Amino acid sequence: MTKKAVIDRMLSKVPEDRKEAFIAELRAAKSKEERIEIAKKYDALLTQEEIRKLQTEAGNEIPDAELDQAAGGCNCAGNCGCVFHCSIV
Question: Using CA atoms, how far apart are residues 29 and 38, in angstroms rounded to an integer?
C-alpha cells in the first residue's frame, strides 16, 4: 500500500467542493493531532477495515501497529513515518 493510495482514499471521502480546503488545511497543520482533527472535520479518517482493504488490494499485509497508526492510534509525536500522521503531508 502506498501513501498515495491512502491519500486518494481519504480524498474520496471528501466532497469535491471541499477537497482543496481539506488539502490546504492538512498542509498547514503543524502536528499529527491537528491532521487528525482536520480529517475528522472532513469525515476523511480511514477505518482499520479501509486500511486492510487497501492493503489487500495492494497484495501486501499490514502490521497491526501500522493499522493503529492509520486509524488514529499513533503516539509517535510525528516522527515514526506512519502512513497517516507522519507522512501525509
Answer: 8
